[in-house]
Amino acid sequence: GEVVAGLSFEQPRIPVVSNLTGRLVEAYTPEYWVEHVREAVRFADGIATLHELGVTTFVEVGPGGVLSGLAQECAGESVAVPVLRGDRSERQALVTALARLHTVGAFVDWGVFFAGAGRTDLPTYAFQRERYWVDAPQAAATAVDPVDAEFWRTVEREDLQALTDTLDISAQDTFGDVLPRLSSWRRRRHEESTVDSWRYGITWKAMADLAPQDSTSSGVWLVPVSAGLPDDEWSAAWLRGLAERGLTTLPVPVDPATGREELAAQLARAADGRSVTGVLSLLAVDGEAAPAAPALTNGVALSLLLVQALGDAGIGAPLWCATRKAVGVSPADEPADPYQTQVWGLGRVAALEQSQRWGGLVDLPGAADDRAVGRLVAVLGQRDEDQVAIRDRGVFARRLSHLPAARRDRSWSPRGTVLITGGTGALGGHVARWLAGAGAEHLVLTSRRGLDAPGAAALRAELEETGTAVTVTACDVADRDAVAALLAEHTFTAVVHAAGSAEAGMLAETSLDAFAETVAAKALGAMHLDELLGDRELDAFVLFSSISGVWGSGGQAAYSAANAFLDGLAQHRRARGLAVTAVAYGPWAEGGMVADTGDEERLRQRGLTTLRPDRAISALHGALSGGDGAVTVADVDWERFIVPFTVSRPSALLSDLPEVEKALAATPREQSAEPSALKKKLVALSPAERQRLLVDTVRAHAAAVLGHSGTAAVEPDLAFRDLGVDSLTAVELRNLLTDDTGLTLPATLVFDHPTPEAVARYLESELVGGTGPGELSVFSELDRLESVVTTAAAEETVRSGVRRRLQELLTLVSSAGEPSTVSADAQRELQDATVDDIFDLIDQDLEDI
């Protein structure tokens, strides 16, 4: 028998691992079964192959549990469950097996198991809904390195053989021979340990059932649906369920050919003065090609237009975008449609750029039963979690967490012919050099321009010097026919998809064409490779992704959508038992996209350090060697990164990282008891001058964080958002003003007070309050007048007018304590006079002469 079920005398319909070869079966032939009888049973090799493919749960369908015990021995921490036991009744053994599988996270269709069973109402007493399980604190990434620990255990045991294997030394080597090798080993382990600390992964955290909020059922919920799916029973079922739960839903059928302006008008008509509580989009499930942008599905294109049109229509209600089985929350939860993950990438950027109008992302199951609908209503009524998946076993929230160190018990190495898309670019070039040095026999490098690409000929010559055959060819991977021709010409053992482009632009200003162009190179290329290669056995299928697809990046909605698709495709391939490794990188140094724009220092100040290419390649090698399906690799200073990232909206996704918890829990800086130099200066000024100084201070700091050489580009009455201030620069500006004022200013300062003038008024109220200028302001005004008179009263006619006005002032001072003949309004006018006011007074006197 084979290791997994699926016995057939023809081509197997599901992946089957053979006990004859220990690998996946490609086809059954008569000769195969003859050899199956004659040759040894390679059970351990088969279990190892399944383990490499990500299988962690084994079910033995047979008369006893012998194979379960063997599988447990071969696969270590994997779970093996026998369906039948010799010492138990079949019914008891089967139910026990199902229960065991359920508790370890495997999917069990209890609806089928309990088909025909009667239902009993639950007791009517109120449930307390109190969790008794303690959430174990997550271990920090600075745990003891297991390889280092094993090395020192080897030394303590005086295991000479293990030590010589580790350091590649022989018994005849002297200490002088050993020391350099030990030093080299230690340096390599330090590098690997550093890279391992950058490894993150996505997990799904089970949430306690949420209680529905009363506010959810008030007002109207607009529910955009695709008119391209007129008979979509799935959408209709969710609409019925929501209505039964008391929500007033108003379906808004959106034609796939509609434009942004038309959609905005349609939404405005649908709202028609009603109180709109929220917007629940079901557009993402339309998988047909968009008429205006064939590189996108209707669901993705309409979701982009919806985000934009809601702003155009002035609808501020939170938008929730729903998908159907787009993400997997466990190995048994197979994603049905990777294209929908593009909406998740789009949504993560919308949460950063349009935080006030964003609700969240929710992945729904295939059936809208009463329990699932109730969970959806509860999700829509809360604001803590904005990336959620609803399944029959509960609600799950998306989280970023540290991954353990990469497994290096076996080292992946290339063989045969390897394809690198985007191979003539900076990242592709680094990968090609590594593969050539690691033993690849033939590299095929593709790009849109082939050998005409800058540096392509020099790269080929450099690689050929290593003895590796190199082919550089022009191939647009977004063109399916071009990819098919390339695959027909070569037989590849591994594929590295590094092609892609990133065009920055805010969501509100991004056109559908520009969005589709950015998505096409990366997402369409990966899909074409996946579909055309089919189930072909590969040593590696590597997808170069980005952190923008993991947690979003302001101004990069299209790039985020494309990279989220790669992560979704990786999940889809892994569920099919195919080789895949998706690495979501932080910014690369030495030729990466960020390096090209010169933003490395700006990113470092905000907590993101660019990756050295050799270390980024080391992370890729570790992921391939350890069989990782998806991994995020980024050098993040979370203490610096998290505050600006969450300035306008909290991030539940990052909240469970220990470094983030520590940074957010830190006590805000206390306001200094000593008045700041700025405050001392303000006390000595008139109200008009205080406002002028504060406006100039805010403008100067805003110009600094925006990279302007002077304050001329920062108009005092222009909104910060229009000036280009985003969530990160907003925090930088807040920090500079905090240093100047000594105040504990909120992180949302520039969002609460949207112009430099508004911030200046707020600062004045906090620093000075209602306090008058006092005695010091009088001398300050006299100093100012002296300066103006010295520079302006050059001509005799001017001096004559100035003398007369100064005589009036002298008379006013001389009569101090006596009843004043000067009106209070005149005194206030003089006190608040600016330099321009003084010149106006002088001009008026000149007219009287």
Mind explaining what this structure looks like?
The protein is of the alpha/beta class. Among the domains are: 207-402, Rossmann fold; 677-767, Non-ribosomal Peptide Synthetase Peptidyl Carrier Protein, Chain A, CATH 1.10.1200; 774-848, no CATH class. 46% of the residues lie in helices and 12% in strands. The protein contains 34 helices and 19 strands. The strands form three sheets. Strands 5-4-6-7-8-9-10-3-18-16-15-14-11-12-13 form a 15-stranded mixed beta sheet, with helices on both faces. A two-stranded parallel sheet has the order 1-2. Helix 2 crosses helix 3 (66-75), helix 11 packs parallel to helix 12 (341-353) and helix 26 packs across helix 30 (756-767). The radius of gyration is 34 Å and the shape is globular. The relative contact order is 0.06. The model is unreliable at 4-12, 669-673, 770-777, 817-828 and 845-849 (pLDDT under 50).
